Amino acid sequence: MSTILRTLRNLRRIGIKDYLHQMQYIGDTKAGTFIASDRYGNKYYENVDDELPLRTRWVDYKEKEYSPCQIEPGWHAWMSYLVDKPPTEDAVLRPGQRSWELPEHRPNLTASRAAFKTYSTVKPKTAAWEPVAAPR
pTM of the predicted model, to two decimals? Predict the structure, then answer.
């Protein structure tokens, strides 16, 4: 939650369209420097001067139904303050640098309809009991 003065200052900086967009999706107003965009269209911002510590970096998701697992690993490291440089400036964090790395980032599908579900390939050792009633 932000103060009225901070909200009005950010409204003046970012404009009414971005103000309404931010209030709809993140519930707060933030003004900062555009850092870069990833290959999925997510936009990353940073404001070191006016924001609270550890709240200076944020992402504007492309999808309306967003999930934090839609962030690539390099960007996740930058957003979590594990590294100082974004993946666009750090050669180690760029995608596609390692042979074992997947060509496309796969989001975590836990608790969704596409989640992996186990199934047994072994014949069950027990059978359910079915009562047989004698005719009357």
Answer: 0.69
